[in-house]
Amino acid sequence: MKRLYLCLLLTLAAAGCFYPPTEKPVADATNQITLALPFDLAWEAVHTVIADNGFRIIAEDPNNGIIETQAATGFSLKDADCGELRGIAAKYRAQPDAGSSAVYNFAVKPQGNEASVVVVQAVFTSSLHVPMHPMRDENCLSRGTQEARLFKEIEAQAHKEHRPEFKPPTG
Predict the structure, then answer these.
(1) Domains and their CATH numbers in the chain
(2) How confident is the model over 61-91, as pLDDT tens digits?
(3) Is-contact 36 154, C-beta < 8 A?
(4) What is the Cα–Cα distance from 135 to 166, expressed in whole angstroms?
(5) Is residue 63 within 8 Å of 125, Cβ to Cβ?
């Protein structure tokens, strides 16, 4: 009986536990920028950045200014917090799986005639293997690094966007 009890205790001790991320989500005020561009040019700037990053467009609705994209590659611990795993004697940060996904939702909203607000929200998902538990998908908490990088690229592209100039025909 003692042997059975000891085996049961060791099995329970060997079983892993998962603890979700403890960081606070990125503040709403930091996930948007205002561009001094009308809606159509801001929309083009966002599309250029999406293409430059090799994101695949999943869905897009120009009437509501929404674009949902997916990155070709996953993400790293610098991009998102996937929580903590604990085993027998160790605890460690949950590493994103090789098949993890990074989805970026862009929203472009007009703010008057000559300005637009761009919002970027990243959703990171990874399969985690907790010892003695089946694999499961977990949403990881964004650290805001990818959103900040995308905002810099959008702002840089916004400075390049302009309307074509009319030149009267010569001759």
Answers:
(1) 31-160 (3.30.310.80)
(2) 999 999 999 998 888 888 888 777 666 666 6
(3) no
(4) 60
(5) no
Q: Is the dihedral of CA 8, 10, 12, 15 positive or negative?
A: negative
Which pTM value belongs to this model?
0.77
The end-to-end CA distance of the chain, in Å, is: 104
**Token pair of 83 as six digits:** 């929580």
Query: Is there a contact between 96 and 74 (Cβ–Cβ < 8 Å)?
Result: yes
* Token couple for 100: 């993890």
**Alpha carbon distance 111, 8 (integer Å):** 63
User: pLDDT for 114-160, tens place per residue?
Assistant: 999 999 999 998 887 666 666 777 888 898 999 999 999 999 999 99
**CA gap 102, 150 in Å, rounded:** 13
